[in-house]
Amino acid sequence: MTPHTAVDARALDSATRLRAAGLRVTDSRRAVVEALIERPHSSADALFAIVARTIPGTSLQSVYNALGDFVDAGVARRIEPAGRPGLFELRVDDNHHHLICSQCGAVEDVDCAVGAAPCLTPSDAHGYAVQVAEVTFWGVCPACAAVADAGPGAPVEAAAS
Fold this sequence. Notes:
- By secondary structure, the chain is of the alpha+beta class.
- It has helices at 6-10, 14-20, 27-38, 44-54, 60-73, 142-150; strands spanning 77-79, 87-89, 97-101, 107-110, 136-139.
- It has 6 helices and 5 strands; from the N terminus they run H-H-H-H-H-E-E-E-E-E-H.
- The strands form 2 sheets. A 3-stranded mixed β-sheet has the order 4-3-5, with no helix packed on it. Strands 1-2 form a two-stranded antiparallel ribbon.
- A hairpin with a 7-residue loop joins strand 1 (77-79) and strand 2 (87-89).
- The relative contact order is 0.12.
- The model is unreliable at 1-11 (pLDDT under 50).
């Protein structure tokens, strides 16, 4: 299996993705897919801000509706980091995990640590047929660590991305 990259996400245009999932192609849905390509791991509010630039008459509810349809159809995945709003991504073709910065909230994809999906075998599956394992690694990203290492009064722009 080859590593997932941003180029992979752009390999299928938005209309092709929607049609392949059996969804009707609308300008609003296309704009949400394109926003997810531009900004993976974004909340519905962040995606709405991007979509509103290209479709000024859109509503936050239409973005939520599209995201719900995408998740139901397998076009998008929703991740729910503890204490944060749900985040959405188009990378649904594997069982990858996430690194999340506990300071700035940056999110990075991490391929499975060992073997094929579901990656992890629980010590006791209690009779379940495990299909997916979701692992979230929490830590401090390099930009936030650099700011912390620089000490008080250091410029904050190092953590901005």
